[in-house]
Write a structure and sequence with these properties.
By secondary structure, the protein is mainly beta. 10% of the residues lie in helices and 41% in strands.
């Protein structure tokens, strides 16, 4: 890899199909190369076999894992738990049908199961009328009876659900969701609504913490030009930013920042070779200790993820 300074990076999304996927990602974000029944768009990933690759500037064609190995905390920031491993996985989920009922392990269960823990969050990008999610179990429930005892929540555009590891959960049809999670492949199915895919009941029994409840943060009115912190967890923080006129964003030495354009259109001036235009559905990775200048062409709503 040639020697270059870091700059804001755009990555190719990695698409995944599933029985519950639909066409909303392609339709809503004008993406022509999505597969049929596109369930997930991995916006930022360094996991093996699904690695994000840079689109813009001198690092075009370089993978996120390779960048992490080379730049370490210059790419991740001082708060990253490990200097040589990208800590997050960020996705868009299109639930045309219900996702499986599943659970992710906490640190204790992950150590027993030989994997990594996973805390995750959902931000609802769009919800059809009557859409819902399930998060948590009614008292006295076991892993085997989870399907009959899920706690339902109506979902609305802008709602946020904080899902700690050990919490049983599922997404119902009609939801388009922006998901931020720790970079772990661990997900254990308790039930798949009769679709016949393999279940992982023994691992799920070790991971489930039936006493946990979801943290539900309803959609709220945002003030223009003000960063609204919606959620802080030990693994990541999540905020929104409504931008109607020229504004500046900057990162510190503590963390990178991932921008996702939920609505609107803007040009982003930065230290790299060319300005970047963000349209709805576009993501941008900003390394630590950088500043960008936002020029909105129309009112833009950004989702911001940091460590």
């Amino acid at each position: 890899m040639r020697a270059h300074a870091l700059y804001p990076l755009v990555f190719h999304p990695v698409y995944r199909t599933a029985v519950w996927g639909g066409e909303a990602i392609a339709r809503r974000y004008n993406r022509a190369n999505t597969p049929e029944h596109c369930a997930e768009s991995w916006e930022l990933s360094a996991l093996p076999g699904a690695e994000s690759v840079v689109v813009n500037g001198p690092f075009e064609g370089v993978g996120l894992a390779e960048l992490t190995q080379r730049f370490g905390r210059d790419l991740l920031g001082r708060q990253a738990p490990e200097p040589d491993r990208f800590p997050l996985l960020i996705k868009i989920l299109d639930a045309a049908a219900a996702l499986s009922i599943q659970v992710h392990p906490d640190a204790r269960a992950a150590a027993c199961l030989g994997t990594r823990p996973k805390h995750e969050m959902w931000n609802v990008l769009h919800a059809e009328p009557g859409a819902q999610v399930w998060a948590g179990l009614t008292p006295g429930t076991t892993a085997e009876t989870a399907r009959e005892h899920l706690v339902p929540y109506a979902s609305h555009t802008g709602d946020l659900f904080d899902l700690p590891p050990g919490l049983v959960h599922a997404i119902g049809p009609g939801n388009l969701i922006y998901e931020v999670q720790e970079a772990s492949p661990a997900a254990y199915r308790l039930d798949d609504w009769g679709r016949g895919r393999p279940l992982h009941l023994e691992a799920a029994r070790q991971a489930v913490r039936p006493e946990l409840a979801v943290r539900y943060v309803p959609a709220e009115t945002e003030r223009e030009g003000r960063l609204t912190v919606r959620l802080r967890t030990p693994a990541f923080s999540f905020a929104t930013f409504l931008c109607r006129r020229m504004r500046t964003l900057h990162t510190t030495d503590q963390s990178f920042m991932v921008l996702f354009c939920a609505e609107g259109k803007m040009r982003v001036a930065h230290c790299g070779p060319y300005p970047i235009t963000l349209l709805p559905g576009d993501s941008l990775f900003i390394p630590p200790r950088q500043q960008v200048l936002l020029h909105p062409f129309s009112a833009a709503r950004l989702l911001l993820t940091t460590l």
